[in-house]
């Protein structure tokens, strides 16, 4: 009888060993740079909405570092602008835009010294710009507005964190920038001569993933999306209450953060369904327009918009 019992036990153990191991869900790594439009992600974390979930927010100093990390697969998702997504697609990656954070209505700017009041007056001046990211697109639109070419001024490549020091140190006469540098430079006496308000609908902040990540991290992406829109609703109900903690993350005053949020259209779940949909109000037409501008300026080597798929599939369970 004991022998029979032992045989049953051994057989049961062998059967358990043959069952597939319960592997933990892979960690979803989301990369972003300091920008008010992405702070809803951090608000979600502060509210505990990622608690116990394999979701990691990865901070970078500037967008160029975010793009590099995404290309090197050091992160799974990238918070970037639509034109930067086209840059990634230009390399042949199959990508999906799964979330639209915001539309910039004056938050991305060109700031200049006293005596430079129009884009035309940049001729012969030194302009600071982060050429590997959004700055290149803003530069193209700025030159068009001023009737200038890149040869008419001196371009000074600067990462975002270098903007303030370069301006205060007299290395540049104007700079293409955004917060937190925008608020600091305005306080230093700079003034606006061009902004995303002049090119409405063109500067759009999105979350991009590779095609394989959309499948391998599907559960994490659903959790992330639901948490983000819940946090955004909480933030929009009382932005003044959320601003102090989130402003500290960007090292700016809460009042400056609130001012910048007024220059952004933070898009809720309902707006995302429209923007990521196939209708006339979706982002597809914007992508095609940006592609045309970027091809004309030599910012893309080939048409790349077809590599970017608009994906509203994660919004199914999110309340409008």
The SSE order reads: HEHEHEHEEEHEHEHEEHHHHEHHE
CATH level 1 class label of the largest domain: Alpha Beta
The CATH architecture designation of the largest domain is: 3-Layer(aba) Sandwich
Strand percentage: 15-25%
Q: SS-based structural class?
A: alpha/beta
Number of strands: 12
Here the CATH topology of the largest domain equals D-Maltodextrin-Binding Protein, domain 2
Mean pLDDT: 90
Query: Low-confidence segments, ≥5 residues, pLDDT <50?
Result: 1-20
Determine Rg (CA atoms, Å): 23 Å
CATH H-level superfamily title of the largest domain? Periplasmic binding protein-like II
Q: Helix share of residues?
A: 40-55%
How many DSSP helices? 13
- Mass-distribution shape: globular
Question: What number of structural domains do the residues give?
Answer: 2
Main beta-sheet strand count, sense and barrel state: 7 strands, mixed
Distance between the termini: 65 Å
List the helices and strands and how they pair.
Layout: H1 2-18, E1 28-32, H2 39-46, E2 55-59, H3 63-71, E3 77-81, H4 82-90, E4 95-104, E5 109-112, E6 126-129, H5 134-146, E7 154-157, H6 163-168, E8 174-177, H7 181-187, E9 191-195, E10 204-210, H8 211-216, H9 218-237, H10 239-250, H11 254-261, E11 264-266, H12 269-275, H13 284-296, E12 308-310
Parallel strand pairs: 1-2, 1-3, 4-12, 6-7, 6-8
Antiparallel strand pairs: 3-10, 4-10, 4-11, 5-8, 5-9
